[in-house]
Design brief:
By secondary structure, the chain is of the alpha+beta class. The protein contains six helices and eleven strands. The strands form three sheets. A four-stranded antiparallel β-sheet has the order 1-8-3-6. It has a four-stranded antiparallel β-sheet with strand order 2-7-4-5, with no helix packed on it. Strand 10 and strand 11 form a beta hairpin. Helix 1 crosses helix 2. The longest helix is centred in the C-terminal third of the chain and has 11 residues. It is globular, with a radius of gyration of 20 Å.
């Protein structure tokens, strides 16, 4: 039996309570509500993938979802209130990524052009929403059909590695998990895109970002350069 779709919350009230959109004035909030398009999707549905993630910002109103990337395998859980797509995660090349509904969901979509307008008209949001403009992207190899991406977290596909000369090892050594850590690239340990903010952002904004993204640190970045890191210990 198909699970019932969740009821979308009152949109104006949700905008007022949101950590990002709640910083807008009443008129801007009303204009935002008029631009948002609310859609419902069942568990297992692909909400958006590839360049579609770069063309609009998704706001998960109800339910749970996940951002998944095939190579290197990575996933970012999404809960009600989280943003994804244009101006939010993933912050790198969006083409290998897909947003999948883990349960029945309600999603509000905002076009990338509207995200850019929000950043231009309300400078404080520039610390919370990334620029929707994408740099020139390299060509990627063809990926399997998006329906195969639902099993990424259970059976991640790793790229083929070239043969390297190595000394002979005892037969039992291949079963040692510590040897895998010596050869596994550190990118395989990345579970989510980094959370960043500019050096002009307030301490309150840093604390809210850590809370909303459920992370213990944020990176301070200016003009593509890493200036430092702020952790939850710094706020105590």
């Amino acid at each position: 039996m198909t699970a019932a779709l969740p009821t979308a919350p009152d949109l104006p009230a949700a905008v007022r309570a949101h950590s990002v959109f709640g910083q807008l004035g009443p008129a801007a909030q009303a204009d935002l509500c008029a631009q948002l398009q609310v859609e419902a999707a069942e568990a297992g549905s692909c909400l958006a993938d590839g360049m579609a993630l770069a063309q609009r910002l998704g706001w998960l109103l109800a339910g749970t979802a996940v951002l998944q990337r095939q190579q290197p395998a990575s996933h970012v859980p999404l809960r009600a209130g989280d943003l994804f797509g244009s101006g939010a995660a993933p912050h790198d090349d969006p083409r290998p990524w897909a947003a999948l509904a883990q349960a029945s969901v309600q999603v509000a979509w905002l076009p990338a052009a509207a995200v850019a307008a929000l950043r231009a008209d309300h400078p404080p949001l520039q610390a919370l929403l990334a620029s929707p403009d994408l740099p020139d992207l390299p060509d990627l190899p063809d990926l399997p059909d998006r329906r195969d991406r639902r099993d990424l977290t259970d059976q991640p596909d790793l790229p083929d590695l070239p043969d390297l000369p190595h000394p002979a090892a005892p037969a039992s050594a291949s079963a040692d998990p510590q040897l895998n850590l010596l050869t596994m690239p550190v990118s395989a340990l990345i579970q989510r895109a980094p959370v960043t903010l500019p050096p002009t952002a307030s301490i309150r904004v840093a604390a809210e970002l850590m809370r909303d993204h459920r992370v213990s640190s944020v990176l301070v970045v200016a003009q593509g350069q890493l200036l430092g890191i702020v952790t939850d210990r710094d706020l105590r």
